[in-house]
Amino acid sequence: MKLKLISMLAGAVVFFVPFTSSAAFAQTNSPSAPASSGLMGIELTPQQKTKIEQIRSNTRSQIENILTAEQKNKFKAAVGQGQDMRRAFAAMNLSDQQKTQLQGIFQSAASQFSATLTQEQRQTIMENMRSRQQPQQNPK
């Protein structure tokens, strides 16, 4: 259950990282960071960008209301040290109640995000995610 939740959290964050700008999550939005592979190749309309920004902002506010200051600092420190999102979330030592709340928030955000996209855009995102999950082959 814990691994499933962390995977879901990390997956949801992949969608929202490119739009993140709060102090607690600022480390994940540096211009030198690679583009989110989940959104690579996706052309968003201005209306989609606006809607996604609203979803992201709402989601971020809800998350920040759930996390303690210490958890926000742990997340920021973990990301600042180059840890991936999955490990950064794990470093926060979330309570069962927080996990349940976050799960609901991310499910809602993912549904809203998905509804904002066209079928073709959703398909591209799924393909991007599958390609990220495939084991990387060693170059010869």
From TrEMBL:
Residues 119-140 are annotated as: Disordered. Residues 1-26 form the signal peptide. The keyword Signal applies. Keywords: Signal. This is Uncharacterized protein. It comes from Funiculus sociatus GB2-A5.
